[in-house]
Fold:
Amino acid sequence: MAPELHAARSGPAGAPVVVLLHPMGHSGAIWDPHRELLSERFRVIAPALPGYGSSDGPFTVAGSVDALAHLVSEVAAGERVHLAGLSLGARVGLRFAADHPLASLALVGC
Structure:
């Protein structure tokens, strides 16, 4: 069973979904300023990966991908999402993209 991710969510229902994945040593809260700006046009999801913030741990890439897949299916209901990851979040995002179709992918510092 995948760990449950705590995730900040904002934006209008029915809007395209953007998922923001944080770097090591942070949680989804690092994206709060970006989430606020993007939420005017998108549903923005900024989870804390397992072992970070309020999410259950421990962190593993595989566990993070499984938990993220569960969260995305819950939020996007089959819709392809836009995903951006920074550092550790980029590593998780790259692995996630290998098995899950995305609308777009942005990876920084992986």
